[in-house]
Design brief:
- With about 750 residues, this protein is of the alpha+beta class.
- Strand 14, helix 7 and strand 15 form a beta-alpha-beta unit.
- Helix 11 packs parallel to helix 12.
- It binds dioxothiomolybdenum(VI) ion (MOS).
- The site of dioxothiomolybdenum(VI) ion (MOS) has 11 residues, from loops.
Length: about 750
């Protein structure tokens, strides 16, 4: 295992508990819907009950006359809601069609009106009293994407894939499918919008306060400086909360209309139709190898569905071009329109469904070759990124596979289907490789050392539940030697310096340079003051010879105890604080990262228990080995990976959003009918981080760990199921019905 650089105060890389833990466990943490403003009223949307057509008539008279009702907004009376500028990366919206824009219906559940009333109950009752009539057409919500007659586009290509595949000694040619999955963070989407004159404040459930502000300013037609977005805590988002959805604009427009703060909470059922999902995918994989298992051809043709109003490309080819060494490769993709709400990124978009297909195909290839599936991956490990000829900044997939094998006990695996037993159950062992991109974007942060003895950081990014508050605190603790009680981290407020969107697992890698730089700047300023304050203990010292350790300023040649508490230095100089701002750039502009292919890697090993007599399948054990650079907080990091593995169990065996073909309604749009993995479904999970710093990405060597944990879990489970039952399930989720054909039923 790689050695990590020792840090002065030893807190980087330590498994420290989250600094915001007590706020969450005591219910003190305020999520968007927890904000109750004076005079606040409630908005409830009315949803279309057809998925395609037009609104023929909308009768709001009864609703308008009901007790407490202040306003009913609809396409006939709503003010102009502007469109977002297409492809503006700093002001992105999820669904580009503004709500209530016209009388056209594109998906079931689309908002057709919004009731604003004094209480939630009054608004809910009045929303139910709005009478809409539609000219409905038969919607397209089919779960089959083939046959597809549209336009394919090439994502990546090298060599001559079709010739090489035709000539290959051993081949797999199969189509794999992943279903619509709905993001189900515990916290519902919610917006509290409050106007004061020309300015508006949002208390939002968003993964990006800065983007949200920019997008809302554009949509509402006001300057950016008139919009403030606050997200102190997020009950996760998994991508569903990256960008604003129509309800955000509606809450703001309603608030402007009634001149009162408006709260709009999206219900769990609405979350199945109006705030994104992972789209349906169908992916044909052709994999060819020589008889000894060297890949010669790899072709992926991936379809995903999108909505009628947006072109959402899932990007199923995310990991395909660089994961393995193969001379002939082609990845193509295309979109198929459906009458569903717009899809959105969901944890590991592209890579996760793409790896389900590719790693399942690799397992099928291993079976065809009569070769161990770990051996097959090792044999085809890539030493460079063959899609572009770049070196990897840091790639340890081989060690992930080897470490995972050893920890899992893979050498004891017998390859024949159904050949492994324990306590009367059939065991299946499967594995898959994993990868996810590594990114760093721009970030600004302010750090101040206060005369009150505290150090503070401010940044307009947000902790989506992953531990970012604690990452900031660890850097401040490392730099100042102060305990967490004297550290304040202030995030989730657009009045602060601009920080990153919480997406793509890039937050930690992105904020580290800025917070470290700002802390260094504030400390340098403090040391200058210590050396130049008349009458102070360190007056006349060369600031370069001074240090801040354990919160005390001292000479480098002396101990911290011989120095002065930093707040005393500030008090002596009659300063309230010293502070510094730091802005760090994107890795794309960094010479250190230039020409390098940057990704995280991993290996997933899964064990299933199959009880053929009663057709009971359980995932009993997962070993996951992750190469995600240096791990800043192994406790929060392992928590991310474990959560992702549980999500992977759900993806493999439970999750699927099903649409009614008659009217396009998600028919399992609630947490009783949409199955997700719970504690009872969770296997024993063993998480290992390799902890090799990736200094090309930042000076701490950290990459991201949110999404890589989900990559590869579902194919490892599907391969384990094949090993136990002999049934190869190529279309998720794996259902008991799929396994009833198992030969092992009679075993
Ligand atoms: Mo992530 S799917 O970029 O929130």
């Amino acid at each position: 295992m790689a050695s990590t650089t020792a840090s002065p105060h030893g807190i980087i890389g330590r498994p420290v508990p989250r600094i915001d833990g007590p706020l969450k466990t005591t219910g003190t943490a305020q999520y968007a819907a927890d904000f109750h403003l004076p005079g606040m009223v409630f908005a409830v949307p009315v949803q279309a009950t057809v998925a395609k057509g037009t609104i023929r008539s909308l009768d709001v008279t009864a609703a308008q006359a009901m007790p407490g009702v202040l306003e009913v907004l609809h396409h006939g009376n709503v003010e102009r809601i502007y469109r977002a500028v297409p492809n503006d990366p700093n002001a992105t919206v999820s669904e580009t069609r503004p709500p209530l824009e016209d009388n056209r219906i594109y998906y079931w559940g689309q908002y057709v009106a919004l009731v604003v009333a004094e209480t939630l109950e009054q608004a809910t009752a009045a929303a139910a009293a709005v009478k809409a009539e539609y000219s409905a057409e038969t919607p397209q919500v089919s779960g089959e994407l083939e046959p597809f007659a549209g336009t394919w586009h090439t994502v990546s290509a090298r060599g001559k894939v079709d010739e090489a595949f035709d000539a290959a000694a051993v081949k797999v040619d199969q189509t794999y499918g992943t279903p619509v999955e709905t993001h189900n963070p515990i916290e519902l989407h919610a917006t509290v919008a409050a106007w004061a004159g020309d300015t508006v404040t949002f208390y939002e459930s968003t993964q990006g306060v800065v983007n949200h502000r920019n997008a809302m300013a554009q949509i509402l037609g006001v300057p950016r400086e008139n919009v403030t977005v606050i997200t102190k805590f997020l009950g996760s988002g998994f991508g569903g909360k990256l960008f604003p959805w129509p309800h955000c604009a509606l809450a703001a427009v309603a608030s402007r209309r009634v001149q009162r703060p408006v709260k709009l909470v999206v219900t769990r059922t609405m979350m199945f139709s109006n705030v994104g999902h992972r789209p349906l995918t169908e992916q044909r994989f052709r994999v060819g190898a020589s008889a000894d298992g060297k890949l010669v051809a790899l072709r992926q043709d991936a379809l995903n569905h999108t909505s009628m109003v947006d072109n959402f490309d899932e990007g199923c080819g995310e990991a395909t071009p660089y994961l393995y060494s193969v001379p002939n490769l082609t990845v193509t993709s295309a979109l198929v329109q459906r009458n569903v709400g717009s899809p959105m990124a969901m944890r590991g978009p592209g890579a996760v469904p793409g790896l389900f297909a590719m790693e399942s195909a690799m397992d099928e290839l291993a079976v065809a070759l009569k070769m161990d599936p770990v051996e097959l991956r090792l044999k085809n490990d890539a030493s460079i990124d063959e899609s572009n000829g770049q070196k990897f900044s840091s790639r340890h997939l081989r060690e992930c596979l080897e470490t995972g094998s050893a920890k899992f006990g893979w050498s004891k695996r017998t390859p024949a289907v159904g050949s492994m037993r324990r306590d009367g159950k059939v065991l299946g062992w499967g594995m898959a490789a994993a990868s996810w991109g590594a990114y760093r974007f721009g970030c600004s942060t302010t750090v101040e050392l206060g005369a009150d003895g505290k150090v503070r950081a401010r940044c307009a990014t947000q902790d989506v539940g992953t531990g970012l508050y604690t990452i900031f605190a660890q850097v401040l603790a490392e730099k100042t030697g102060l305990p967490f009680e004297r550290i304040e981290v202030l995030l989730g407020d657009t009045t602060m310096p601009e920080g990153p969107l919480s997406g793509g697992s890039w937050s930690t890698a992105t904020v580290l340079p800025a917070v470290a730089g700002a802390a260094d700047g504030a400390i340098a300023s403090l040391l200058q003051i210590a050396a130049s304050t008349p009458g102070a203990k360190l007056e006349g010292a060369d600031a370069k010879t001074l240090r801040l350790t354990e919160g005390r300023v001292h000479r480098a040649t002396e101990s911290a105890a011989q120095g002065v508490p930093f707040e005393t230095v500030l008090q002596a100089a009659r300063l309230n604080r010293v502070s510094a701002d730091s802005t760090s750039g994107s890795a794309f502009e960094d010479p250190k990262a230039k020409g390098l292919s940057m990704h995280s890697f991993g290996a997933q090993f899964a064990e299933v228990e199959w009880e053929p007599g009663i057709a009971r399948l359980r995932v009993s054990r997962v070993v996951t080995v992750i190469d995600a650079g240096r791990i800043i907080n192994p406790r929060a990091g392992a928590n991310q990976i474990k959560g992702a593995v549980v999500m992977g169990v759900g993806m493999a065996m439970l999750e699927e959003t099903v649409y009614d073909p008659r009217n396009g309604q998600p028919i399992n749009g609630n947490l009783a009918d949409y199955l997700m993995a719970t504690c009872a479904d969770s296997p024993e999970i063993d998480v290992t981080f390799l902890d090799y710093p990736d200094y090309a990405l930042n000076s701490y060597g950290a990459r991201g760990i949110g999404e890589i944990g989900l990559a590869g879990v579902a194919p490892a489970i599907a391969s384990a199921v094949y090993h136990a039952t002999g049934v190869r399930v190529r279309k998720l989720p794996i259902r008991i019905e799929d396994l009833l054909q198992s030969e092992m039923r009679e075993a």
